[in-house]
Amino acid sequence: MIQLHEVTKRYGSVQALDGISLTVQKGEVLGLLGQNGAGKTTLLNILTGYLAPTSGHALIDGCDSLLNPQEAKRRLGYLPEQPPLYDEMTVREYLTFAAELRGVARKAIPAHVDEIMALTGLTEMRSRLLGHLSKGYRQRAGFAQALCGDPDVLVLDEPTVGLDPKQITEIRQLIRSLSKGRTIVFSSHILTEVQQLCDHVVILHHGQVKLDSPMSQLGMGEETTLHLRAAAAPGTLQAKLRQLDGVTDVALQPTGEENVTDALLTFHQVQEPERRLFALMSHLGTPILHLSRQGDSLEQIFLSAISGD
């Protein structure tokens, strides 16, 4: 569990953070959003004990990261934007070193490191020098060191920055697998990433919290409305659309075209309704002319929050 109480940070006359208070429960994944200079990295550095707040408190499972840093850091794993790697070490040597620093019992370290390498997909790279790893594997090694000591809290700063699409998908899958039973906070500029992975979102702007909300309360969780235009007569398609799992309403829109269906489909508690719609259209052999989501996206919510609307 993470708790921030009225945390402020000043650099001379510059107010980087202004009275930040938030709570992240165990088992929750929180996405931290904000423009460059909003205060995200400063907040993460205070949370991990790297910086001291000007005022306020940051607690990790009840331990103050400033007053009781050793105990707080024992409960926390941190992946900064640039993973702290020693290029002259092999993967196994590095993780063994990290486990020793985290206080893992010496006899338990080999099995602990093997488990972490298996979890992060590094087993085949165990004898490879860190300096010879690709960007994706270096990021995995950074994740692995954050997991040494089996911390209850993970703090991730831009965990997918600079990765290719395949590597991004793999890292997102890793975050999902790590979220069970842990508290995770990660900073990202990729809004779709936050929408896919997070239970909660916090938006910072000029060092202040502009939004602090569960994803389910942002109007994107329970119901999703899709706008569909398809090359089929409305009468032939409407019944099939209503039979889709999760569909609660199908509203046909006038098109003035005989062989075009224009409809708004409302889905309830369906994560990716587009997949179900694509599968149906493919099965029917019906071309999709247009498909989009209706209503507020996380991007629109973010822009509204930082503009004060």
Features:
six-stranded mixed sheet, 309 residues, 29% strand, four-stranded antiparallel sheet, alpha/beta
Would you mind describing this structure in some detail?
The structure is a single chain. The protein is of the alpha/beta class. Helix content is 33%, strand content 29%. The chain has helices at 40-47, 69-74, 91-101, 109-120, 135-147, 165-178, 191-197, 234-242, 273-284, 298-307; strands spanning 2-11, 14-24, 29-33, 55-60, 63-64, 76-79, 153-157, 183-187, 200-205, 208-214, 223-230, 247-253, 261-268, 288-293. A 6-stranded mixed beta sheet has the order 6-7-8-3-9-10, sandwiched between helices. Strand 1 and strand 2 form a beta hairpin. Helix 3 crosses helix 4. The chain is globular, with a radius of gyration of 23 Å.
Summarize the structure.
This protein is of the alpha/beta class and 309 residues long. It is 33% helix and 29% strand.
Overall body shape: globular
Distance between the termini: 31 Å
The residue fraction in helices comes out at 25-40%
Strand line-up of the largest beta sheet: 6-7-8-3-9-10
- For the CA atoms, what is the radius of gyration? 23 Å
Question: Which helices and strands occur, and which strands form pairs?
Answer:
Layout: E1 2-11, E2 14-24, E3 29-33, H1 40-47, E4 55-60, E5 63-64, H2 69-74, E6 76-79, H3 91-101, H4 109-120, H5 135-147, E7 153-157, H6 165-178, E8 183-187, H7 191-197, E9 200-205, E10 208-214, E11 223-230, H8 234-242, E12 247-253, E13 261-268, H9 273-284, E14 288-293, H10 298-307
Parallel strand pairs: 3-8, 3-9, 6-7, 7-8
Antiparallel strand pairs: 1-2, 1-4, 4-5, 9-10, 11-13, 11-14, 12-13
Helix pairs in contact: 3-4, 4-5
